[in-house]
Each structure stands twice: as structure tokens, then as C-alpha cells.
Design goal:
The chain is an all-alpha fold. Helix 10 runs parallel beside helix 16. The chain is globular.
Length: 412
């Protein structure tokens, strides 16, 4: 009963807007079948080499860098509502165009363009979460949003595994439909609220001089933090590139079972995230939460070098999910605490760039190491790197936030 009370209480106090942002994300991500299967699509359907598939996947990361930077820049200028609306609606035709490109160069180009458009959504969405959440609920608001992502991710890949066995084109059209529905729902709910918020903001600006705040690109402590976020992401994002190839080529899982394995990860996070985040907020410091979360992610990959039976694969995925729960939502909270009132978009954008750079590096480095040195070397190296990053987070997070704690700016 105590565990049930902890779980149910973790949902209390969240605003209507936070719930709607999560619902929009759920609809959008329920169609996210493309990314986990792109590597398999290129090697199995288009017959690209593993190395060339990694190069093409890196263009998604390049687009993510550009999109995160652009999204953070224009969010602070035109607002998160317009950025999210445009990103969702413009993604629709781009998803439909992907199946028309059959060469490495053509597929890399359309993935680059689609990634730029879709990734402008991320910093704008993060700003919206902080805007509509109470200060004491920011981490739980991010967790609710991530829970929606993972609930959609548990539906999408499971369905994607079934559809890809019939036709890969279904994956792209389903993603387009989900983005369209998410865009319509977002515009319907937030259009009026955004107009009221703009009117209120104009009144505040007329009464109070807006404080000029520093750029995150000149914030040395935050830049170092983002560097380690990028290194963590290089480890974690094996999930979206080399892990699915490992499942197919080494563990000999079918496409349907790959989809079910990814779906299991999403379901587990939906089941555990809000409760685990509440426990971490109550009993752990931010630094310790990042330490244990990052270490568990590394351990989940390292164990694959020694056993890849179905039981081991399930245990590995379970540890990866718990590590993800205790790392990713808190990364966003730390970024929000470090930023000011008028530059949240830029800070979220820069933190998003650290993830996007990992999308460039991870597919190429991961597939190259797997191809030349074997998957065992890749998994052990990932585990060692993650353990080192965990220790770094433990010291960097309090060092970066101590100035904010002294001035109390994080409460504002």
C-alpha cells in the first residue's frame, strides 16, 4: 500500500497543460517506429553495409544538432507555441518522402532535413514544460512527458516490428499520421492559452525592465556539464543504432521480437518512472541520482559481452530502463535550474545539442567498433566509459549549481 501511495502521489499537483503536453507527446511518439528500425531497414531492405548504415544514421545526428540550435534560438524569439506547431506539421510530408530515396546519399539528405525540422521541437517542448509546471514539480513534469514518450515508444516499435515484416513503408506513413494528429491537438489546446500568456508577458515587460542574461555558450560550467551529457548519450544511444543490429545478427532475434523488446523497455519506464523519480527526489541528491543512473546504464551494456540469452537480454534492458529513469529527466531539471528566466530556450537548445552530437557520433563509432573489433569490445568499452561519466556527474552537478543555490535563482 505504501508503494501504491507513493506511485499515485507522484501524479498529484501537475497542471492541465503538463498533462496535455504529455498527451500530445504520446500521440506523436506512438508513431515513432522509424528511428529504431532505420539501421535494420538499411541493412536488410536496402542492403547497405553496416558501416554505410552508420554513416547515414549520423546524418540524423547532424540534423539534430542544427535543429536543437535552431529550435533554442527561435523559441526565445517567437515562442515555444509556434515552434512546436510548425515542427509537428512540417514533419508530416518529410516522413512520407523518406521511402522514395533508395541510395545512401539520397537517404542521408532526406533524413538530415527531416531531423532538422523534427528536432526544433525538443527545446521548445522543454521550455513549455518549465513554463506550465510549478517550480517544485519541474522534474515530475519532465518525467510525465518522458513517460508519455515511452508509452508511445512501447506501442510504436512493437507495432513497427509487425509492420516492417510486411512493408517498411508503413513505418514512415504511420509516423507522418501521428505527427499530424499531435500537431492538430497541440494547436487546438494551446492556441488560446498562448494568446493569454503573450498578453500577460507584454504587460509584465511594460512594468518591469527585462534582465539581460548571459548566453549558455559562454557558461563554462554548463558547457562542461553538456560535454558529459554528450558522452553519456554516446553510451545510451546504442539503443537506437547498434543494439538492434546486435539483437538481429548476434542474438538472432526476429524483427517482431526486436520490436517487442523495445516495447518492453517503453512499458517498463511507463510503469516505474514517476514512482522512481519521486523516490529519488525524496531520498537522493541530484548528484547521487545521476551517479547511480549513469552507472546502471553502463552496466546494462557491459553484461551483454558475457551473455545474450533471452533472460540476460531482458535483465539488461531492465537495468537500462532504471538507469534511464534516474538520469534523463534530471538532466533536464539541472538545465532548467542553471538557466535564467529569458534564456531557457537557448539553454535547452544547447543541452539538446549535446544529445544530437551523440546521434552523429554513436551510429558511426558504434557500428565501426562492432564491425572491426566485435560487439564484446563495444559493450565492455561502453560500460567502462559510463562508469567514468557517472563519477564525473557526481562532482560536476553540485559544483555547477552551487552559485544558483547561493542566490536562490533556481526558485525563481
Amino acid at each position: 500500500m505504501k508503494l501504491i501511495n507513493i506511485y499515485t502521489s507522484s501524479f498529484k499537483g501537475l497542471s492541465q497543460e503538463s498533462w496535455m503536453l504529455a498527451l500530445v507527446m504520446l500521440i506523436n511518439r506512438a508513431g515513432s517506429m522509424v528511428l529504431p528500425f532505420l539501421g535494420v531497414y538499411m541493412t536488410d531492405h536496402l542492403h547497405f553495409s553496416i558501416e554505410n548504415s552508420g554513416i547515414v544514421l549520423s546524418f540524423f545526428g547532424i540534423g539534430s544538432v542544427i535543429g536543437s540550435w535552431l529550435g533554442g534560438l527561435i523559441t526565445d524569439k517567437i515562442g515555444e507555441y509556434r515552434v512546436q506547431s510548425l515542427s509537428l506539421l512540417l514533419s508530416v510530408p518529410l516522413f512520407c518522402l523518406i521511402p522514395l530515396f533508395k541510395t545512401e546519399a539520397g537517404l542521408a539528405g532526406i533524413i538530415l532535413l527531416q531531423s532538422i525540422v523534427s528536432e526544433t521541437f525538443r527545446p521548445a517542448n522543454s521550455v513549455a514544460i518549465t513554463k506550465y509546471a510549478r517550480p517544485e514539480n519541474i522534474t515530475r513534469a519532465f518525467s510525465l512527458n518522458r513517460m508519455a514518450v515511452n508509452l508511445g515508444f512501447s506501442i510504436g516499435p512493437a507495432l513497427g516490428g509487425i509492420l516492417s515484416a510486411i512493408s517498411y513503408e508503413f513505418l514512415f506513413f504511420s509516423n507522418a499520421l501521428a505527427a499530424f494528429l499531435a500537431g492538430l491537438m497541440y494547436i487546438w489546446f494551446f492556441r488560446k492559452r498562448t494568446r493569454l500568456a503573450r498578453k500577460k508577458a507584454r504587460n509584465v515587460k511594460e512594468a518591469v525592465a527585462v534582465k539581460k542574461e548571459n548566453s549558455p555558450y559562454r557558461d563554462g560550467k554548463f558547457l562542461m556539464y553538456c560535454l558529459f551529457c554528450m558522452l553519456f548519450s554516446i553510451c545510451f544511444f546504442q539503443l537506437f543504432s547498434t543494439l538492434t543490429i546486435f539483437y538481429k545478427d548476434t542474438a538472432h532475434l526476429s524483427q517482431q521480437n526486436i520490436g517487442f523488446m523495445l516495447g518492453y523497455s517503453g512499458f517498463l519506464i511507463v510503469l516505474l518512472e514517476m514512482g522512481f523519480v519521486q523516490l529519488a527526489e525524496k531520498y537522493f541528491t541530484l548528484a547521487f541520482t545521476m551517479l547511480i543512473g549513469t552507472f546502471l546504464c553502463g552496466l546494462s551494456y557491459a553484461m551483454l559481452a558475457f551473455d545474450y540469452s533471452m533472460v540476460a537480454l531482458m535483465l539488461s534492458m531492465t537495468l537500462l530502463c532504471i538507469g534511464e529513469i534516474w538520469t534523463l529527466p534530471f538532466m533536464s531539471t539541472i538545465t532548467a535550474l542553471r538557466s535564467g528566466e529569458n534564456n531557457k530556450g537557448a539553454y535547452m537548445g544547447l543541452n539538446g545539442i549535446s544529445f544530437s552530437l551523440a546521434f552523429i557520433i554513436t551510429p558511426y563509432i558504434g557500428t565501426l567498433i562492432a564491425d572491426k573489433l566485435g560487439f564484446n569490445t563495444l559493450w565492455i568499452g561502453t560500460g567502462i566509459l559510463a562508469a567514468a561519466i557517472a563519477v564525473a556527474f557526481y562532482f560536476i552537478v553540485p559544483w555547477m549549481l552551487k552559485d544558483k543555490n547561493k542566490t536562490g535563482e533556481e526558485i525563481a
